[in-house]
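Observation: inputs received (chain + flavin mononucleotide).
Thought: call the complex predictor directly.
Action: predict_structure
Action Input:
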Amino acid sequence: MEKTTLQSIRERSSHRKYLPDQLTKQQLSAIVDAALQSPSAVNAQPWHFTVVQDQALLADINKTAAKHALKREEDTRSPRFGDETFHVFYHAPTVIFISAHKSHYAPIDCGIAVQSMALAAESLGLGSVILGLPREAFVDEDKERLERALKFPADYGYVISIAIGTPDDEKAPHEMDPAKVSYIR
Ligand SMILES: Cc1cc2nc3c(=O)[nH]c(=O)nc-3n(C[C@H](O)[C@H](O)[C@H](O)COP(=O)(O)O)c2cc1C
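Observation:
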């Protein structure tokens, strides 16, 4: 049975270990539909979604991200790249990349779409993690090559991605901070 929207929001958390089991066609289709059904400013739908289940391509992007990140000073990159066992996609069976043309609202629109997919995955009993770090791969001599491999439309660049699969870790939702809310009545 699918979780309700509120239950999915409550129970979603980022998973960083996955079983190799692939998503079913129906699960993937529901998640992709959730992305395509997301709102966007003036309904511009400035995004493109690339579903990747080719582990060799994900391994290439992982290696390329680490190569570029490790070229920089330690304090300018995620400490995760210092761990040789770190895999930027956590070996998830499916990763969905969102690319977009640069525009004022595109990052917000893509952020909403990625959360739609995270909640759809949660409601289907799957787990996910939203990923900014793979952006490290899309630079210098590797940018064009990877954008082509991922079928980004012309002039679209990496915005965000999401790894999805059956979680192989236990993860409680993060603590809520009520101080982040003001009420004016
Ligand atoms: C825009 C964005 C980028 C993120 N990038 C990464 C990432 O590259 N790697 C990662 O492990 N988690 C990433 N996360 C997950 C956050 O670390 C996570 O959402 C946060 O720690 C809160 O934990 P929770 O998702 O379990 O509630 C990202 C989340 C967001 C919203």
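Thought: report the result.
Final Answer: Residues 106-123 form the longest helix (18 residues). Helices lie at 5-11, 25-36, 55-69, 106-123, 140-149.
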